């Protein structure tokens, strides 16, 4: 039996069945039986020689051995056993095998690294029944060959990974065939594919897709497009190597990067093929004559700077029916029959949700960084300490292979953490590539310069102006900000930059497409804008456009189309941030205040509470001498957002200033809104009489102004006050009236809030069925809106309803989700409800100590924040507290309560979300 996966220097044995697809098609039933016997033979031979099968894919086996001798013994035993089998006629199984040794990374039962890729390439060179060894495997085996076995030196061969040539050996034994067709290496077909200094990392999906496209009978011209540094050339070369066996007269690489004159394209192609000009006819005709009857694949590399000569490609394809052309270019050729394939950046992790370190190298960008860093610095490793920095570096470099390779080369002198700190200027850091590379590949700036030089003057102007955007741009915004006079023909300019891979088009589910720049290109464009002298003018125009959008959106955020407008602001949030940032840096305080005043409700609903307050706080600080309704609205927003973060006193002060400012400005409708928000602050602090006065004044002003949304909002808040002042019947009537108005207005958030409050009222009245029904209806609206706070409130209500119906397990799940929503938002008031609910659920499950600690912790948090749950709300949890006190006895209950009061907020959250606690359970079994 095999043990665990071997580590250190490992010998790999890879196998697969020659012609398995054909065998399946010929006789599936016989093949199924034969494959079962094949699998049994291989597994027995591998595991019988200390091997570890770490992967099977179809009929392929991937195994690892601690020694090369073990691997050789297993391969020989497998081949002999397969040859000894009596196979059905037409279903004879012949397996090819390959052995290679090296150090590979083992994680999760699989292996990763260059040795794994190398053995796979070696396997693809062989034939059924043949066993091949790399030079490394041969060296490790030494003289310890199996009895009667020997090795035949097949010489140095070029494998299809385009890396260094490999000296290959064939395993021979007296009872096994020794004669096979020529090895399927690059040497087997005519080609001029250049060796590459490093193995290709990743790109498995793109390799498969591009190769499949080229194989299509109708596919004659395929262009790999993408910005500089995306790895188009390397991908194209590897595809060409993969397809070599499929083109009888070979595969030819035509390097065009150094060709500046389009008129030289024909002669460059001819030179790669060995076609020479004759006096009798033009060179292009000689080229056609050569290609006309030959099955050949041409790889035309870096076509962008000679794209004017693209028609010659179409001319060759028309005259030569067996010719296929694969092109790499930053610009599509626009030739009839062309198919474009956009080469994406390498796969990236999400740095905010990183997987465990052992799984991080599943991302191609991270794997490339590590392999290139190891080449630059011996002993470099991915560790838990540098993992986040490496992931962030790859993300900041957009997953561009060139950028990652240049950054990894710096690992010789800079650890990842220090490198990350220096990436504020990517273009300065990422230089110094290998001297034998073209200039455009030695620095990231050189790669982008290459693309920038392809633009005409109008396109360069548009390109630099496009850098003013953040997170994407629409046609409308581009025309308004970058080309207000229509002098640059922005539509054509954008199309040209998409074609030249300087912009990427992203289709939206609804609405017009957005155009985005990779951040490396964006940084270059920003430099160009700054050098132009027009940066301030363009930034002012940008801020004006997005201020207009924010103010247009503001009234719509409470109307029937509120979801669409919230989504639109979310999509443009990066641009709105850029506008706010410019306004503050440029001392345009009024613009910043107007932006913040228009956006605060969006920030509140979509959970950007901390960020929104920070923007408004900075705007208010910079606009100290500004007065009137602009400042008053910003004070309202800042106060309400701060209120949700647990600073009641400071929030109340801001909202009081807002009321005073609106009274002075004489704006009754805006004053009504400010009074309403100040009333909410009083509710949070338990000052119900004061809040009622504020709400009633607000309601009167809203009615006078005919502002029905405000009327519904204030009715809802008055209803909450009535509930907490033992006016339940009046509270229900006010909630029902508020809900009716909100339904008439199509205010989805308002509807959900009314439903949530009615559900809360039903809970306090003991009607758990109604509470659950109302909460579920409101929850659908909350999720549609993306309103985390409202969703959390409704989840808590639904959890409490299920708890009172005797389902503490499901209630706990809902209350935990509610708690996590409020924790993410930094919302303090409603967080208490979730904590109190989870404490009650813990008591219902028999965890009285844990419950008592949570109640004590919540009690202390109320003292810290100044928040106070209304008596009617607190009454929901009282029966569970009584039960916990009775279960534990007063001394133990008070001890647990005080332990909770001593906890930090982080400890409280951890206690609330823990799934079990043996110590707690132990304490609960002790007598009181």
What does this structure look like?
With 928 residues, the chain is of the alpha/beta class. Among the domains are: 9-185, Alpha-Beta Plaits; 204-342, P-loop containing nucleotide triphosphate hydrolases (Rossmann fold, 3-Layer(aba) Sandwich); 357-446; 534-626; 834-928, no CATH class. The strands form four sheets. A seven-stranded mixed sheet has the order 2-3-1-4-7-9-8, with helices on both faces. Strands 11-12-13-10-14 form a five-stranded parallel sheet, sandwiched between helices. β5 (105-107) and β6 form a beta hairpin. α24 packs antiparallel against α25, α31 packs antiparallel against α32 and α31 (708-724) runs parallel beside α33. The two termini are 56 Å apart. Mean pLDDT is 88; it is low at 433-437 and 916-928.
- Name the CATH homologous superfamily of the domain at 9-185: Nucleotide cyclase, GGDEF domain
- Corresponding CATH architecture of the domain at 9-185: 2-Layer Sandwich
> Reading side by side through the largest sheet, how are the strands ordered?
2-3-1-4-7-9-8
- Determine and state the CATH class of the domain at 9-185: Alpha Beta
Largest sheet at a glance?
7 strands, mixed
Helical residues, percent: 55-70%
| Poorly predicted residue ranges | 433-437, 916-928
Number of strands: 17
Arithmetic mean pLDDT: 88
Please give the alpha-carbon distance between the first and last residues: 56 Å
- Global outline: globular
Helix tally equals 43
Query: Per DSSP, what share of the residues sits in E-state strands of 2 or more residues?
Result: 5-15%
Cα-based radius of gyration, to the nearest Å: 35 Å
Structural class: alpha/beta
- The name of the CATH topology of the domain at 9-185 is Alpha-Beta Plaits
């Amino acid at each position: 039996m095999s043990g665990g996966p071997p580590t250190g220097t490992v010998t790999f044995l890879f196998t697969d069945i020659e012609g398995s697809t054909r065998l399946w098609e010929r006789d599936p039933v016989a093949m199924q039986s034969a494959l079962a016997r094949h699998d049994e033979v291989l597994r027995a031979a591998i595991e019988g020689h200390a091997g570890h099968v770490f992967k099977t894919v179809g009929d392929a086996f991937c195994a690892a051995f601690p020694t090369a001798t073990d691997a050789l013994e297993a391969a020989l035993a497998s081949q002999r056993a397969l040859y000894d089998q009596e196979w059905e006629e037409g279903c004879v199984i012949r397996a090819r095998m390959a052995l290679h040794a090296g150090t590979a990374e083992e994680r999760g039962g699989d292996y990763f690294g260059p040795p794994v890729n190398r053995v796979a390439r070696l396997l693809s060179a062989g034939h059924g029944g043949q066993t091949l060894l790399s030079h490394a495997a041969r060296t490790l085996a030494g003289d310890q060959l199996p009895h009667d076995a020997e090795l035949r030196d097949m010489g140095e061969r070029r494998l299809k990974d385009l890396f260094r040539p490999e000296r290959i050996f064939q395993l021979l034994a007296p009872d096994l065939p020794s004669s096979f067709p020529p090895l399927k290496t690059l040497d087997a077909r005519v080609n001029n594919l250049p060796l590459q200094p490093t193995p290709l990392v990743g790109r498995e999906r793109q390799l498969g897709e591009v190769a499949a496209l080229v194989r299509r009978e109708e596919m004659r011209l395929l262009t790999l497009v993408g910005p500089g540094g995306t790895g188009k050339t390397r991908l194209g070369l590897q595809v060409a190597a993969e397809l070599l066996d499929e083109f009888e007269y070979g595969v030819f690489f035509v390097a065009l990067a150094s060709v500046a004159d389009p008129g030289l394209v024909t002669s460059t192609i001819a030179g790669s093929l060995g076609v020479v000009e004759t006096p009798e006819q033009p060179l292009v005709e000689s080229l056609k004559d050569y290609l006309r009857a030959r099955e050949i694949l041409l790889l035309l590399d870096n076509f962008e700077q000679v794209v004017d000569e693209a028609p010659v490609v179409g001319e060759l394809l028309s005259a030569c029916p067996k010719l296929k052309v694969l092109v790499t270019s930053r610009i599509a050729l626009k030739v009839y029959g062309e198919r474009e394939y956009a080469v994406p950046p390498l796969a990236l992790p999400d740095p905010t949700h990183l997987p465990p370190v052992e799984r991080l190298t599943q991302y191609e960008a991270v794997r490339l960084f590590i392999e290139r860093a190891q080449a630059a610095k011996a002993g470099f490793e991915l560790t838990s300490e540098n993992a986040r920095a490496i992931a962030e570096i790859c993300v900041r470099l957009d997953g561009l292979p060139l950028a990652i390779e240049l950054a990894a080369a710096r690992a010789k002198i800079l650890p990842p953490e220090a490198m990350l700190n220096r990436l504020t200027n990517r273009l300065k850091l990422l230089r110094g590539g290998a001297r034998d590379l073209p200039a455009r590949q030695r620095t990231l700036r050189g790669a982008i310069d290459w693309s920038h030089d392809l633009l005409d003057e109008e396109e360069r102007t548009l390109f630099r102006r496009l850098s003013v955007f953040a997170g994407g741009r629409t046609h409308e915004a581009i025309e308004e900000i970058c080309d207000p006079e229509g002098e640059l023909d922005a539509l054509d300019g954008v199309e040209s930059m998409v074609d030249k891979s300087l912009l990427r088009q992203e289709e939206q589910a609804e609405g017009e497409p957005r155009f985005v720049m990779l951040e490396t290109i964006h940084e270059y464009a920003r430099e160009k804008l700054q050098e132009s002298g027009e940066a301030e003018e363009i930034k002012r125009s940008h801020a004006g456009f997005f201020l207009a959008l924010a103010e247009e959106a503001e009234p719509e955020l409470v109307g029937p189309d509120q979801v669409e407008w919230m989504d639109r602001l979310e999509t443009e949030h990066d641009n709105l941030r850029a506008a706010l940032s410019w306004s503050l840096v440029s001392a345009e305080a009024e613009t910043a205040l107007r932006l913040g005043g228009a956006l605060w409700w969006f920030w509140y609903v979509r959970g950007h509470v901390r960020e929104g307050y920070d923007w408004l706080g900075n705007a208010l600080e910079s606009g100290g001498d500004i007065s009137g309704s602009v400042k008053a609205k910003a004070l309202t927003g800042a106060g309400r957002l701060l209120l949700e973060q647990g600073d009641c006193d400071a929030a109340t002060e801001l909202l009081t200033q807002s009321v005073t400012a609106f009274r002075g400005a004489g704006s009754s409708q805006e004053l009504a809104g400010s009074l309403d928000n100040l009333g909410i602050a009083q509710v949070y602090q338990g000052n119900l009489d004061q809040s009622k006065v504020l709400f009633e004044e607000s309601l009167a002003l809203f009615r006078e102004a005919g502002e029905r949304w405000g009327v519904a909002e204030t009715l809802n808040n008055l209803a909450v006050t009535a509930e907490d002042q033992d006016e339940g019947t009046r509270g229900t009537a006010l909630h029902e009236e508020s809900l009716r108005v909100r339904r008439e207005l199509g205010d989805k958030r308002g509807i959900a809030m009314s439903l949530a409050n009615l559900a809360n009222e039903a809970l306090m009245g003991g009607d758990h069925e109604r509470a659950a029904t109302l909460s579920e209806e409101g929850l659908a609206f909350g999720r549609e809106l993306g309103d985390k706070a409202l969703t959390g409130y409704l989840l808590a209500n639904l959890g409490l309803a299920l708890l009172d119906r005797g389902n503490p397990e499901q209630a706990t799940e809902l209350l935990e989700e509610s708690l996590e929503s409020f924790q993410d938002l930094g919302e303090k008031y409603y967080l208490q409800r979730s904590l109190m609910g989870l404490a009650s659920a813990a008591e219902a499950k028999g965890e009285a100590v844990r419950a008592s600690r949570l109640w004590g912790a919540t009690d202390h948090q109320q003292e810290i924040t100044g928040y106070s749950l209304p008596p009617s709300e607190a009454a929901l949890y009282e029966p569970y507290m009584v039960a916990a006190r009775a279960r534990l006895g007063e001394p133990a209950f008070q001890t647990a309560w005080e332990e909770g009061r001593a906890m930090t907020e982080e400890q409280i959250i951890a206690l609330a979300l823990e799934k079990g606690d043996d110590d707690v359970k132990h304490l609960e079994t002790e007598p009181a």
